């Protein structure tokens, strides 16, 4: 299925029996965690990207808020928002997405506060609304992840052998935050990875996995966020031919 975002007037694609569909946006970190969860669980699925400024009428019927992510099942069931979707995917059987569910759920809940300023920008706040503490907040967030990895002594956030749900939830947020260092270098200073060895190793490890390789191209993400923040343009098809 095309990665291009569907907008008002587009027809709703047919959902095959026995398949789930994730309504997404390529640069949305909350949609990304759901995409990664579906891949990790090997759930048959398709992805339909939505133009979040000009949503198709049929999408607004599925979710009147007009936001993503949204999961649709072939029986008509609709699940809205990233963590309820993740829990639904977790209940589909097979190996758990979690290494230590209670710990990871708490960590993911805490991650709502991680990179808050950068998430505000992605959700439409103006760069002028941010305080001069934004860079400090970003560095504190990165320090927290470095400290967590050192304490756990693991390659990924909660285990060594492969990523788990905490990695899938936090990595897209971190990627967004890193991209904004390139978009707003005068406001958000990049972290020196030489002083954050565990964090650097974690990012490299995630990027090298089959899941990390499916994530959106970093340069497309930077270009999208730059046009969004600087010009208030929403080029949902950034980087696509």
Automatic annotation (TrEMBL):
One of the record's GO cellular component terms: cytoplasm
Residue stretches spanning the membrane: none
GO biological-process terms attached to the record: glutathione metabolic process
Source domain of life: Eukaryota
Residue stretches making up the GST N-terminal domain: 18-97
The UniProt record lists the keyword Transferase: yes
One Gene Ontology molecular-function label: glutathione dehydrogenase (ascorbate) activity
Classification via Pfam families: GST_C_2, GST_N_3
UniProt keywords, alphabetically: Transferase
PANTHER family hit by this protein: GLUTATHIONE S-TRANSFERASE OMEGA, PTHR43968
Entry's family note: Belongs to the GST superfamily. Omega family.
Name assigned to this protein: Glutathione S-transferase omega-1-like
Organism encoding this protein: Tropilaelaps mercedesae
